[in-house]
Amino acid sequence: MAKVLFINPVVREEDDPRHVPYGMALLAAIAMRDGHRVQVYDANAWRPMNRERVLKEVLEADDWNVVAIGGLSTTYGDMKKSVRALTQYAPQALCVGGGGFLTSMPREIMELLPGLDLGVVGEAYVTFPEILRKVDGKDFNWSTTEGVIYRDAKGEIQMTPLRPLLRDIDHLPFPAWELFPLDIYFQNSMLLLSEVSMVAKRRLDINASYGCSLICRFCWHLGISGDMKMVETPKGRDVAFTYDRNLRWHSPRYIIDLVKYARDRFGVDFILFLDENLMTMHTSTRGTWLPEICRLWIEEGLQPECIRRGVPHDPETCQGVHFSGTSHAGLVDQRVLSLMRDAGCAYLTYGLESFSDRILKNLGKGSNAKLNERAIRITLEAGIRPIPNQIIGFPDEFFDSIIASVEACERLGVVADPFFATPYPGSEWYYTYRDRILEQYHGDLEAFLLDIGDATKITAVISENFNAVELLGLRELMVKRDLKRIREYEKIWRSQHGEPRFPKFSADGWRHRDGIEWLGGGGTSGHEAATPLLSHQGS
Amino acid sequence: MAYLKGNYTLHKEIQDDTPAAEDQVKAFERFARRRLGGSIAFVMKGKSFVWAGEESPQVKPTERS
User: Fold this and answer.
1) Which residues, 6 or more positions from B37, have their beta carbon under 8 angstroms from its beta carbon?
2) Nearest residue of B to residue A12 by CA position?
3) Distance from CA of A48 to the nearest CA of B (A)
4) Closest chain A C-alpha to B2 CA, distance in angstroms
5) How much is the average pLDDT of B18-29?
6) Complete DSSP assignment for A449-486
7) CB atoms within 10 A of CB A235
8) Are A6 and A38 in contact (CB under 8 A)?
9) Cα–Cα distances in Å, from B45 out to A13, A28, A278, A326?
10) What does the alpha-carbon distance between residue A523 and residue A161 come to, in Å, rounded to a whole number?
11) Is A231 on the interface with B (CB under 8 A)?
12) Whether the predicted pLDDT of B55 surpasses 90
């Protein structure tokens, strides 16, 4: 059987390692289930002093058949180093890449990383084990494997048809968490997002669903939400992303069994749901999924003791498992919040983004300022901390939207240091503003990839009205709620620029890309064409 | 240090206990950058700092503040 090495890249160099990579842990479990010999090098957790030396020794530690790397676009720089080292120290191994960094722009990544032999485009749960079977059989003809990008005998980049998404996700094994240095992750279990998560001692993250029905233009869904299509471009086949959706969620039974497994084997006291948005799944199941999860959570003994007894949480003695996840201001309701609180929900993250109705409408957020305020109120009333994420630097950001957000924050007691609007690869913003993004990096796509982080620092600016310096200053003034200086600067701005520009967004913006031909089929099951999703309901 | 964890035993020990000087520099600068602000500040080594002035510049009394 194949000898497989997984390398988890460094994520957020400026922060501690906090999250076991769920997808990689699942792929490791799948590879082991199929009988392969698996090792994991978690560079993110270890962060050794001698990074280059340790990586070299890892790559020379066995006669690897496959070295698998993957992560989000923000880890591109670290993965580039791994691929370069791999070609030097483990040239016999097939270098396979996957995850968001590759799926968002497979052709460009293959061009940027000549040491990468094979890329998994989109979901890897079926594609990756097929690759390992082929490696076992010494069959390196990738043209018959769906969902990959590879180099042919002439060295030219080829892409095969997209692989349909896995339908029965409950057959997936539980992640191989035990292959990752959990002691390191548990040291960083605490999350400064609520009183309970702040003192979590053994946290693990789970993914209970795939995709999100919403169409926020800064977001993309890793090609695993039914959003990805294959297109023909002048350079050959490539991927493009649409408003199509194929949402999938694990059964409450699978989720509860997974959490109980995490508690019984690893002693977890906190579970972070990584799901893009729990409330879109709640809506898509007509309000049945979350209540059933909460019912089972309590019935099967996962409810924290402090909630059951109505006493303050004591991390030293409290039995049970708290949890958190992501909600949505337009979809949340009091009933589900109450059920979640009773089961042990400590906080819910809301991408409120702004309190300007213009911004929220153009963003495709499915919410408005009133709903944002309501969500904060009913979440607090339910006894759950709402985490009110904010963004500055939207394409149509202007002084009125900034002032609306500052006033709302003052009224509601929101304390936030906004993210910068960032056009991540794969998002609609990235395609809309690609030329402008590249202009800011002198046409160097790789420089942009190496620059993007977690949106707390400014990178490519997509605001029609503000430059990077202005956004940095305005964010500082937002945080300090300094409306006086914001209004003073508006007068200066208007004297220099006149009236603001507000771009128009169409509901089918994805389709308006030059030079591509849409091909049918692909990543969505049961959808023949890329149709725009205009409503977040009933997908 | 067991940098590798897997479903079979590897007999190779991977070491990280004798960092080279340049690795210590990198590690220090990484940590310092994470806490940057106020008095946490540093000068990067290896940035080819070039001093083009005199070896020991003399400040004239009239230039002193």
Assistant:
1) none
2) B34
3) 7
4) 9
5) 72
6) HHH--SSSS--S---SS--HHHHHHHHHHHHTT-HHHH
7) 11
8) yes
9) 19, 40, 47, 42
10) 9
11) no
12) no
Q: Give the residue ranges of DSSP H helices in A211-302.
A: 252-266, 278-284, 289-299
Identify the residue whose tokens are 């060295």. Answer: A155
- 4-63 in chain B: CB under 8 A from chain A: 4-8, 10, 12, 14-16, 18-20, 23-24, 26-27, 30, 33-34
Task: Tell me what pLDDT residue A514 has.
Answer: 59
Token readout for A494 is 């208007």
Euclidean distance between CA atoms A454 and A12, whole angstroms: 7
Residue A204, pLDDT score? 98
Of A32, A42, A54, the CB nearest to B16: A54
Burial class (CB in 10 A: 0-12, 13-18, 19+), A379: buried
**ipTM beyond cut 0.90:** no
Measured CA angle at A225 (ends A247, A268), to 5 deg: 75
- Which residues of chain A are under the pLDDT cut of 70? 506-539
Q: What does the block give as tokens for A289?
A: 């999924």
Torsion of CA A373, A454, A165, A135, to 10 degrees: -160
Q: Do the Cβ atoms of A14 and B1 come within 8 Å?
A: no
Q: What is the pLDDT of residue A532?
A: 30
B14 to A61: CB separation less than 8 angstroms, yes or no: yes
Task: Provide the pLDDT confidence category of residue B56 given band limits of 50, 70 and 90.
Answer: confident
Other C-beta atoms lying within 10 Å of the C-beta of residue A476: 12
pTM, 2 dp: 0.90
- 3-state SS of A499-534 is CCCCCCCCCCHHHCCCCCEECCCCCCCCCCCCCCCC
